[in-house]
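Postdoc handover notes: sequence design on the structure in folder B. Input tokens:
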């Protein structure tokens, strides 16, 4: 998902209608799957299909394997595999950039090759063919140094390299938090992302407003609160006979819990939150005071105001979608 976000949206379009992925290793496959998920989330018309062209020496085999593992892909997108090397004449001619219909040319390119030099060569070769057809080209590199310096913010970016963007794997993905936190860190970030999408600065108290910032700017204690919440999602789901699994069903994010399931899990989530707060030194009081660690919501579920109960219910109802966005799904025992 990070590599998809590495180029800002153009014309309000979150996901282009036609992307080109060069290299179908783990990263290339991940780019394809996340692009499809974004397309499904942002395009309400079921008739619109995402066009994906993939280039790899084993493109046909890898595309077929992907469709076998994710049979619902056919309902969402058209995948066109092109079997070629990036130094072949067919690649250098780059005729695949332009659609025969003239209405669906490639709008974004992701170079996901494991070799930095080969990846840069692949990106620059396409750039040569884009005299009038300007398309952002995102190149995977180990880190944003060395060859990636060419694609920095200097004069080169304002000239012929303007459409090239380096995505440094180490810089972008291998933060200490992600390395140490693993899945819980990914889920914690996703929970915060969902929270941000549901909040406005106008409706929050001081503590809530403090959380209305991107994850990177979030105070460490609030990050930790999200991590603990993420780590307990499995226990919360288990209360109703559910578990977390790697996503295989594209409709998984649309799962609906019954009202009874929502109530059970919401009350358990509130109990967990109360334990966490009390362990951190918070106490009950009729008036909220963050400095003195006083919170009026540190009460039993039955005594909790209805608007606070609804916050917990909203969190539970949103779990299928939140987990799906992070690459997981909910399964019933």
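Designed sequence:
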């Amino acid at each position: 998902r990070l590599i998809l976000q590495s180029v800002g949206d153009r014309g309000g379009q979150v996901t282009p209608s036609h992307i080109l992925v060069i290299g179908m290793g783990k990263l290339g496959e991940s780019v394809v799957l996340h692009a499809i998920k974004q397309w499904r989330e942002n395009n309400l018309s079921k008739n619109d299909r995402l066009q994906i062209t993939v280039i790899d020496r084993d493109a046909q085999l890898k595309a077929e394997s992907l469709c076998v593992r994710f049979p619902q892909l056919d309902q969402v997108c058209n995948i066109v595999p092109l079997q070629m090397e990036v130094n072949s004449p067919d690649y250098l001619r780059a005729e695949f950039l332009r659609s025969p219909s003239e209405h669906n040319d490639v709008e974004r390119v992701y170079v996901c090759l494991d070799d930095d030099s080969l990846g840069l060569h692949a990106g620059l070769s396409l750039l040569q063919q884009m005299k009038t057809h300007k398309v952002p080209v995102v190149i995977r590199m180990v880190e944003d140094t060395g060859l990636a310096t060419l694609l920095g913010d200097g004069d080169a970016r304002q000239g012929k390299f303007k459409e090239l963007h380096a995505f440094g794997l180490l810089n972008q993905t291998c933060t200490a938090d992600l390395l140490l936190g693993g899945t819980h860190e990914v889920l914690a970030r996703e929970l915060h992302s969902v929270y941000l999408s549901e909040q406005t600065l106008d409706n929050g108290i001081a503590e809530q407003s403090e959380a209305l910032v991107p994850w990177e700017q979030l105070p460490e204690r609030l990050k930790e609160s999200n991590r603990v919440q993420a780590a307990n999602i499995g226990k919360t789901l288990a209360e109703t006979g559910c578990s977390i699994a790697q996503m295989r069903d594209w409709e998984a994010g649309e799962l609906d819990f019954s009202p009874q399931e929502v109530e059970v899990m919401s009350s358990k989530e509130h109990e967990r939150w109360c334990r966490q707060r009390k362990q951190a030194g918070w106490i009950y009081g009729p008036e909220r005071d963050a400095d003195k660690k006083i919170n009026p919501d540190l009460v039993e579920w039955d005594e909790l105001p209805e608007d606070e109960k609804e916050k917990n219910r909203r969190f539970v109802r949103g779990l299928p979608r939140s987990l799906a966005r992070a690459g997981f799904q909910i399964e019933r025992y």
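Context for whoever picks this up: Strands lie at 18-22, 50-56, 77-83, 108-111, 137-141, 164-168, 242-246, 283-284, 294-295, 328-332. Don't rerun without checking with the PI first.
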